[in-house]
Amino acid sequence: MRHLTHPFLRSIVYVVSLHLICLLFLTLCRIVLALSNIPIDGLDMGLLIHSLAIGVKFDNLIASYISTLPWLVLPLTALILNARTSVAQVMPYMVKSAAWYYGIIYTPLIFLHIANARYFHFFDNHFNIGIIEWFGFVNETAGLVFDDKTNHIFLFIALIFIALFLFTISFLSRRFSRDWQPVPSHFKHYATMSAVSLLLWGVCFCGMRGSFQRYPLRVSFAYFGNHPFYNKLGVNPLFNIIKSAEYGRVGIPKVLQAIDEKDAIAYVQRTLDIEPIDSLRPLVREGVVHQQVTGKPNVVLIFMESMTSYNLERQGNGEWLTPYLRQLREKSIYFSNAYSTSIHTNNGIVGVHYGFLPNFAKPSMNVNAERYTGLPYYMQKAGYRTLCFVTGNPQYDNMNSFWRDNSIEEIYSLYDYPADKAVNRFGVQDDYMFEWGLNKLNEISDSGQPFFASFLTVSNHAPLVVPEAYVQRAPTQDEQIIAYADDAIRQFMEAAEQTAWGKNTVFVLVADHGTPLPSPYDMCLPYNSIPIYICSPQLTPQEIITPISQIDIWETVLSLLGIPYSNNCLGIDALNQTREYAFFVSDTHLGASDGEYFYCFNMQSQTDFLYRIGSGDNLIDSYPDRAARMREYAQKMQRVNLLIIDNHWTEPCE
């Protein structure tokens, strides 16, 4: 930079150049996200460019915070040393230090952005503060990252981007490290340079605020149209993590907290026809039992990993991916309009077993978590032996401590299986867990004591390990593993039905959550849309099309078994009661659906949407009354759901 000799001007040009280079690489990371998550209707270049432009604003906010120190130190140092000979020794050192500063900070930041592109594929949104939980399970998290071969591509891209970034700023620092010379200046020059410095810091402050509008930058500022992908694309993942952390500090989100507590309780009591029996717990009521099976049958609950109901309509190489689950509908009480509480396994466990939705991105099974009643509690009280089977580490998601605190007596896991049967860091394949569990249940049944057993499958979760026999079933690994998961369930069910205990068992099959298949909605409905089955020789097969949630399962099972219970949550007996809508959440959204319409509220952007299922058109203005009813239902139900948890009303009443 021989032609630019003025130290002060050189320092400003240098820090601005570094800042712009950082913005360029963050934009390139966003392009990677766009290209690796192309919507089902393809890329719209106009919307893409608009979203990328908005993304620069979000990236600039993060970059401005990072640039605050060099923007302050380098021009100020150049201003002080402007006319001194020491400028030739000090400024090259400052230039190189700034390059190191940006390199150290942006190396993990670029890695975060590229990893976010892959995360977006699974969760239909950016990183949030919930990823901190993953660091508590290093082995499993490492497996998620390194055992999935597709992740190797993103890792390679991240390393290339980091190398290019470090090379670029290193090249720039070498150019600016040379030829620093003092320049005599008068008072008016110093006044001008001081004014320019203040202006530069002012620009940096505006960048940190992110907006010239009344309010500082929010997630909602990224929303500019009706296409959810482009609305989300502009948000910076680090910004999203920070905002979700701020949001996560609140017990009950502000938008729900604003709803009057008494009004919400009265609404729920009226809507669910609740006559409370406990003056201190206004939702507690005696469960009405409608026994449909005789004797004291066993109960086997199968959690199907990531088994969205949409999978039942998918084909590979001209064949159904889930032939067993499809034909099982004809032999079961099948709930065709069912929804998971959220999008994580730990939320599904709490929803199905105990009847509660999570507080959005907050995990449900922390150490020292709530104590619950629910299915294990009342089955244990009725004399049942309670146990569960998992494929891998029982400590993951704090399952071991949580379940043992909540009426599960025995947990069988990777600690019990032969070491050579583990196929990845999530443990054994589904079929082996089922085989091992079947043998264990054969042993347990000899005691004559009835049992309640949960099985958690995991093979349909990245990193995928597809057995050779299923490679030809479909073109992609995602489809092949669905076919395998379906067949593993078939083998277990057919084998169990041949045993003495299996002939006296109620089988409940439910997905822990769905999967983020392409959808036109702001909230990914396939992630919450799931199948639910209840199978027993004593039950008449039927399809139930009214909405049902995971939180309705435990009441329904206890009712048909004839086991008395007190209901302290918002679940219902789905065989004898109906709900107008199922309500559910993701990390960032609150949703409700009756099977025809789908309402969702984005907690970050504070915007709501109404869709007719199958269409991506936002009908919020076309059907205001319908939207208002669904909004009221979803928000007041979730308000009371979180109120129960917040007040520790989940614990046994006895």
Give a written overview of the molecule.
It is a single chain. This protein has 654 residues and is of the alpha/beta class. It folds into two domains: 242 residues, no CATH class; 299 residues, Alkaline Phosphatase, subunit A. Helix content is 46%, strand content 13%. It is built from 18 helices and 19 strands. The strands form five sheets. Strands 2, 5, 6, 7, 10, 11, 12, 13 and 14 form a nine-stranded mixed β-sheet that branches. The chain has a four-stranded antiparallel β-sheet with strand order 16-17-18-19, covered by helices on one side. The chain has a two-stranded antiparallel sheet with strand order 1-15. Helix 1 packs parallel to helix 3 and helix 2 runs antiparallel to helix 3. It is elongated and about 100 Å long.
CATH superfamily of the largest domain: Alkaline Phosphatase, subunit A
Give the helix proportion (percent range). Answer: 40-55%
What is the CATH class of the largest domain? Alpha Beta
Strand residue content: 5-15%
Terminal-residue CA separation: 80 Å
Which architecture of the largest domain per CATH? Answer: 3-Layer(aba) Sandwich
The name of the CATH topology of the largest domain is Alkaline Phosphatase, subunit A
Largest sheet: 9 strands, mixed
Which class do the helix and strand fractions yield?
alpha/beta
Shape estimate: elongated
Low-confidence stretches: none
Q: What is the count of helical runs?
A: 18
- Output mean pLDDT: 89
Q: How many separate domains?
A: 2
Number of strands: 19
Backbone CA Rg: 29 Å
